[in-house]
Design brief:
heterodimer; A: 300 residues; 2 domains; 25% strand; B: 180 residues; mainly alpha; 6 helices
């Protein structure tokens, strides 16, 4: 697929959607008219119901084409940018980071509905990383017996090779992320709450470690400063888990990355710029945290 | 009268509970300090081991450098904090001497073995810094607790005194100043 074909694919989806919405509007107004003709009553309730059903039906009917467009966008626009920044790229739109990997960090429950896609595995500055969009939901039943879904986590999950070797797990979670299960009472792993010497850091983050010394080893004053800097540069709640010499980062941003705007004409320069901005989320972790510094990679 | 007695009993019970909780908290912090102290011991031993390996490598390479006298370091169990500080300072002095000697031997400096040892030195120093920070963090918490009222009452009755911090090396302090 090239840019022209991508634009055609976008126009095709938009056209189908417009036709669908148009039919829905005509049918809705038709119902109002028929109702008025036979019952003599102007009732607009049906407009909302048929309108809603029309939008729903249109979305279902255009889903396949929309997915094709999104896939094309990611291959034509996003992957091309990846190739200029990363090495050894493996990009799989249909798979994501497996649920058990996130579950194993013990940072939060992985809920009733787990969904992950847009998997990227690559190298940046010789640091291997994995990335994926992740959405975790829980189903709740209220006092009236109605079931509804609550989002536990929606955002990105990153896994980086960490440049320090440590024995025990360490969890760092920004305060205010209400679904955190840090150092959980019923966790199979025993965690201690750690107070570090940086008062500001302690105010912003909760730190739990299996071994306090590892917490001080990994979270040096410099690293804490960098984490605070990262926290100021992102929108959303940050979670860090240092486990098996890997750094897991969860960014609860409430949005997916690299998603195209269906109603905006493809402008390759603009789209590349947007993709680069979003890629900076990944490169910032390596650059700001200095993960490419391999001074500590080989232990004694 | 009964009411008054009840109030007195409740107050005494509250004081006893507070006394036990506070004393436990102080004792737990002391245990944490001891744990952190043993962390310093482990890190110092690691640093010592790497340093000995380095000194052996340098001595084997620069046999004719008789004028280089390394400081004698004795590590033993139950060292006081001052003794640990002194041993650590001696290790740093020896490391500086090693670096000076190695400057005259570019082949040694560029050898894989030496590079690996240098990397190990960085690694163990980072571990020592972590142990020092953890120790000092716990000491800071303890010292703040024993001077704060009313915890100071229990601390004084148990003859608890302020703990000494494990000092950062002068060179490390200088490094920090440069960075600022």
């Amino acid at each position: 697929m090239n840019i022209e074909e991508l634009e055609k694919s976008r126009e095709k989806v938009v056209k189908k959607k417009k036709i669908g919405y148009g039919i829905a509007a005509i049918v809705s107004l038709g119902f109002v008219f028929i109702n008025y003709m036979f019952n003599g009553v102007l009732e607009f309730d049906t407009v909302f119901i048929t309108g809603f059903l029309g939008v729903l039906l249109t979305s279902v009917l255009t889903m396949k084409d929309y997915r094709e467009f999104v896939k094309g966008y990611k291959k034509v626009v996003v992957l091309e940018i990846f190739k200029t920044i990363f090495k050894n790229i493996h990009f799989d739109l249909d798979r994501g980071i497996p649920e058990e990997i996130i579950s194993n960090t013990g940072m939060m429950d992985t809920g009733d509905i787990y969904h992950s896609n847009d998997y990227i595995c690559a190298k940046y500055k010789n640091v291997s990383f994995e990335f994926s969009d992740v959405e975790i939901e829980e189903e709740h039943t209220d006092s009236d017996g109605d079931r509804h879904r609550v989002t536990v986590f929606k955002g990105q999950w990153y896994i980086f090779d960490f440049n320090k070797q440590f024995k025990a797990d360490l969890q760092v979670c920004e305060k205010g992320f209400r679904n955190a299960k840090l150092g959980g009472l019923f966790s199979f792993k025993k965690f201690n709450k750690v107070q570090l010497e940086d008062i500001e850091f302690n105010k912003e983050f909760n730190v739990f470690a299996q071994n306090n010394l590892d917490a001080f080893y990994v979270l040096t004053p410099n690293t804490m400063e960098k984490i605070k800097k990262l926290n100021n540069s992102v929108h959303g709640k940050l979670l860090f888990c240092f486990i098996d010499n890997k750094l897991h980062v969860g960014l609860h941003s409430g949005k997916d990355l690299f998603e195209p705007n269906l109603y905006k004409k493809i402008n390759i320069e603009q789209n590349h710029k947007q993709a680069i901005e979003e890629i900076q989320m990944i490169t910032n972790f390596v650059d700001i945290l200095g993960l490419d510094n391999d001074l500590f990679r080989k232990g004694v | 009268m009964e009411m008054l007695l009840l109030v007195v009993v409740v107050i005494i019970a509250l004081i006893v509970i507070w006394y036990i909780c506070t004393l436990n908290k102080l004792n737990r912090t002391l245990v944490k300090i001891e744990e952190a102290d043993s962390g310093i011991d482990v890190a110092l031993t690691k640093r010592y081991d790497v340093l000995v390996k380095m000194m052996d490598t340098v001595k084997a390479y620069a046999k004719h450098e008789k004028e280089t006298l390394f400081e004698v370091i004795n590590l033993r169990k139950g060292m006081t904090l001052d003794e640990k500080n002194a041993a650590n300072a001696k290790m740093s002095a020896n490391l500086e001497k090693i670096n000076l000697v190695v400057e005259n031997y570019p082949e040694l400096k560029s050898s894989d073995n030496y590079k690996m040892l240098q990397q190990s030195v960085i690694e163990v120093e980072e571990h020592l810094q972590a142990a020092r920070r953890m120790y000092n963090s716990n000491v800071s918490i303890f010292n703040q607790m024993i001077v704060s009222f009313p915890t100071s009452i229990i601390a004084n009755s148990k003859k608890m005194v302020k703990k000494t911090f494990f000092e950062a090396e002068e060179t490390k302090k200088k490094d920090v100043k440069i960075q600022l």
